[in-house]
Design goal:
CATH class of the largest domain in chain B: Alpha Beta
Radius of gyration of chain B: 26 Å
Oligomer: heterodimer
Distance between the termini of chain A: 28 Å
CATH topology of the largest domain in chain B: Rossmann fold
Number of strands of chain A: 4
Strand order of the largest sheet of chain B: 6-9-10-3-11-12
Number of strands of chain B: 23
Distance between the termini of chain B: 42 Å
Strand content of chain A: under 5%
Radius of gyration of chain A: 22 Å
Chain lengths: ~350, ~525
């Protein structure tokens, strides 16, 4: 996690200044939004602001959890419900950490719900016809990786932005998944072992939690300690600088989308295994929560960048909110609305400001 | 410039006002000062702009012209001094106050909306409207009034601005400034982006504006234009006014001397008479979008300087060598392997390239270490994983060697400009590059860091590396380089060999050829001289 604030606190005055209009900025040729407080905070208000910038989202999370617990002390703060929250949040975590990689590379992916749906159909169909679990899942993961490779390759051609390219791909993957499910039929899963992929437990913890944790840790390590992860972050920071430094841009971009494709496939497998079926509504509901989780995550611990830890916290936040409202008997749409409002508030309170 | 001369020129308005015989000038600068961090941009400037006159403002890049005019346009607040408007002090806090005071700034960039019509562009932000609906008829009528004043009366106001020729677009931006009914127009290099043969169309318009009572400040590097147009010329260098010359006394040579560098400055570098080793860069008849037929060679151990005015094609030439931009035709050989087809290939073959301005090179939000190692990351990693230990020790050595001040873990953008530039140089040192391509390596950097970077560049050459550096400052070229080319309008107009001197370089930049001195302006002469 970045320690920007600390560093500004101890850095020389020259470094902290960095205001627009200085000679240095002028030669830089572009005006960056000032990301730092102009001075070391000394007043009580500034210290409070700094504290809230770092821990505000986590405190909000704790308050929400406490409120639900206070209202339903018999149900909410129990091991069973916590376990089910994490279990339910697992697909969102898996998608959010994949999305974290793509966003770190400075790109967007809107095709992952379609890709996850396609993988689901393929896996469930294969499982039905083979009455097997391992080969279908393997095929599904390969399909997910291929969707990522195609998306990454198209984005790497630099003919169009990733935003529109992945919207187009999303339509293609969705259409393919409908065609493979005979026009959008629900396909049930019969293979017991396949169903156990999500429902199984080890040490009392659902398998899904292990999948999510393993992927999150792997991607955290990848972004932090591998050459590929360094290049991904470099491209996201400044593509021109990265290209001029001799980095292979295409491979790095394709790689980032491939990771996302793998995560979409993993989410598809988890969802179909838990639901015991493929249903045509599967893709639609996957779209918003991962984005909310990742952007929410940029405010966790004052990171201001897309980061794996924040994304996981964001996904759990959504999980707690939805389960809490469920337990209170509220409708699903209320949860969606609250999630949207929460994200908007978090983003607007953030310190960074976009230049016009 | 002698003290007498300065004193006699300083009489001007103050005296005139005192004896009441003449009206005060439109604008008078009194001891204006402005510094950015440690760099003094404007250092006690005083002069005046009379009513209905065209004042030509000349000076090299970084002389302080733009800062001064931005102060007058309310964009920058001065640190000290006064601006008098009709003899009364004014505080121009922002561009709007300046505009209300009758000062309109026409920047070098056109800032037109190409898809909108001429009329809409002219009155952008002040559309005549009723209940939120634009009144097309009245819009076109007002636009026509403005167009007449810049001799565009024959133009259809409904044409999209993007379809206009460059000189018509320039006239359009002047007309747009006139929409605010200013008393003073500041024109920042209005001819810089225009084809040379179309600049003529500007002059009658500007003269007519002056005759109708407007004052104009005309900033340009093209001294011929300044000489033709100006009623008086103000020359600046290093943030100070070096001369004020009235129309009749203006000469090209005089202006070159006023804008030129520290006179008498001589380079200390000497080139060993015989070039050693294999040629690092060989360009033959290279053509690009601005570059027109450039040929030259660079050998290991040489520091070749490219100078010339902004837009002369210096940077384009460097981009071609670095594999960032492709050339149209000609031939290019870099380090014995033909041209570089991409920055990646260039980096692999041992080319280090640092762009003008650090913006395109910095990985903002990433640490000093990450910025330093990005180009050579494979030597600091194993099996795809980066090695924090190897990175730390390499960057530690680099920081010591280049005396980079700052924590290696701190984000690069929190470093000072000079330290940032050192990190970028370090990035390529870690790759073991043998050809260095540096575009304005010390622009906007404090004097101390500048000296250190110069020493570093000389050190590269001493170790047998080849260096090409572009700089708009002849002083820098003279004090660092072993060899220099002057580029004018995309072609090499002069070559200077060691020991270099400032004056012939400046002269060649501004006039296109030298005014005497040790410059081989003739290309055939130069080719005969090469080994």
């Amino acid at each position: 996690m970045s320690d920007l604030e600390n560093i500004v606190g101890i850095s020389e005055p020259r470094a902290a200044k960095g205001s627009a209009g200085s000679g240095e900025q002028a030669t830089g040729g572009q005006i960056e939004p000032t990301r730092f407080h102009a001075t070391v905070p000394t007043s009580r208000g500034a210290v409070l602001r700094r504290f809230l910038g770092r821990y505000g989202t986590l405190i909000g999370f704790a308050i929400m959890f406490g409120a639900f617990s206070a209202v339903r002390p018999d149900v909410f703060p129990t091991w069973v419900s916590i376990r089910s929250i994490i279990d339910l949040a697992a697909p969102v975590i898996v998608l959010a950490v994949g999305l974290t990689v793509v966003l770190n590379a400075g790109e967007f992916d809107l095709a992952f719900p379609g890709a996850a749906a396609l993988v689901s159909v393929v896996t469930v169909q294969a499982s039905a016809s083979l009455n097997q679990w391992a080969v279908p899942i393997l095929v599904g993961l390969v399909v997910g990786v291929v969707t990522g490779l195609i998306g990454g390759a198209l984005v790497a051609m630099r003919r169009a932005g990733s935003f529109i390219v992945t919207i187009a791909l999303s339509a293609v993957w969705t259409a393919l998944s409908f065609s493979l499910s005979h026009g959008g039929l629900t396909i049930p899963v019969h293979n017991e072992t396949y169903l156990n992929v999500a429902f199984g437990r080890a040490l009392g913890i659902p398998f899904t939690v292990y999948y999510a944790a393993a992927l999150a840790l792997a991607i955290y390590a990848m972004l932090r300690w591998t050459v590929f992860g360094r290049y991904v972050r470099a491209i996201g920071s400044n593509p021109t600088a990265t290209r001029l430094s001799g980095v292979n841009m295409s491979i790095t971009r394709v790689g980032a989308f491939t990771v996302m494709g793998f995560c979409a496939a993993a989410a598809g497998v988890i969802i179909t295994s838990r639901a015991g079926q493929y249903s045509p509504q599967l893709g639609g509901g996957l779209f918003i929560p991962p984005f909310v989780a990742v952007f929410f995550g940029t405010s966790v611990l004052g990171a201001r960048t897309f980061n794996v830890f924040g994304s996981v916290v964001g996904a759990l936040f959504i999980g707690v909110l939805q389960s809490g409202l469920n337990i209170l008997g509220a409708s699903g749409w209320l949860g969606d609305g609250i999630i949207g409002v929460t994200l908007i508030v978090t983003l607007m309170l953030g310190t960074g400001r976009k230049a016009d | 410039m002698s003290g007498n001369e300065l004193a006699s020129e300083r009489r001007g308005s103050a005296d005139a006002e005192a004896d009441g015989s003449a009206p005060p000038p439109l604008v008078e600068f009194v001891d204006i000062r402005k510094a950015f961090a440690s760099v003094v941009a404007v250092d006690g400037v005083s002069f005046d702009i009379p009513c209905g006159q065209i004042v030509g403002l000349v000076g090299a890049n970084g002389a302080g012209k733009s800062t001064l005019m931005n102060i007058l346009a309310g964009v920058i607040t001065p640190d000290g001094g006064q601006i008098l408007l009709h003899g009364r002090e004014v505080h121009l806090r922002n561009p709007r106050t300046a505009l209300h005071a009758g000062i309109a700034f026409v920047p070098q960039e056109l800032n037109l909306v190409p898809d909108m019509s001429v009329a809409e562009n002219l009155l952008l932000g002040q559309f005549p409207s009723r209940a939120g609906v634009v009144r097309g008829g009245s819009l076109r009528e007002r636009a026509r009034e403005l167009m007449v004043r810049v001799s565009l009366e024959k133009m259809d106001p409904n044409r999209p601005a993007g379809a206009l020729s460059p000189v018509e677009q320039r006239l359009l931006t002047i007309a747009r400034a006139l929409a605010h009914d200013p008393q003073l127009l500041i024109l920042d290099e209005p001819s810089a982006t225009l084809p040379a043969d179309t600049v003529e169309h500007l002059f009658p318009v500007l003269t007519a504006l002056a005759n109708s009572g407007h004052s104009l400040v005309y900033i340009s590097h093209r001294l011929q234009e300044i000489k033709r147009l100006s009623d008086r010329v103000v020359a600046m260098r290093d943030g100070r006014v070096t001369g004020r010359v009235e129309r009749d006394a203006v000469t090209i040579e005089g202006m070159v001397e006023l804008v030129g560098g520290q006179p008498g400055r001589r380079g200390t570098s000497t080139l060993s008479s015989r070039r050693k080793g294999k040629v690092a860069v060989a360009a033959r008849d290279l053509h690009g979008s601005r570059i027109r037929g450039v040929s030259f060679e660079v050998y290991p151990g040489e520091i070749v300087g490219l100078t010339g005015l902004q837009g002369s094609g210096r940077s384009e030439l460097l981009r071609m060598i670095a594999g960032v931009q492709h050339y149209a035709h000609g031939s290019l050989d870099v380090l014995g392997g033909g041209p570089c087809r991409s920055p990646r290939e260039a980096a692999r073959r041992g080319v280090a390239y640092i762009t003008e301005g650090r913006g395109p090179m910095l990985l903002r939000g990433m640490s000093v270490t990450e910025n330093a190692t990005v180009a050579a990351l494979h030597s600091f990693s194993g099996r795809g994983f980066t090695s924090g230990r190897k990175e730390r020790s390499a960057v530690g050595r680099l920081a010591q060697q280049l005396s980079i001040k700052g924590d290696p873990n701190q984000p690069i953008q929190t470093l000072s400009g000079g330290n940032q530039q050192k990190v970028l140089i370090g990035r390529w040192m870690l790759t073991g590059a043998s050809l260095w391509i540096l575009d304005e390596p010390t622009a906007g950097i404090d004097v101390h860091a500048r000296e250190e970077i110069h020493r570093l560049i000389r050190d590269f050459a001493d170790r047998g590396l080849a260096v090409i550096m572009a700089s708009a400052e002849p002083e820098e070229i003279v004090s660092v380089c072993t060899h220099a080319f002057v580029i004018v309008e995309g072609a090499i107009s002069a070559e200077c060999t060691a020991p270099l001197a400032v004056e012939p370089l400046v002269a060649a930049c501004y006039v296109g050829h030298d005014l005497g001195g040790q410059v081989d302006a003739d290309r055939s002469l130069r080719d005969g001289m090469a080994p």
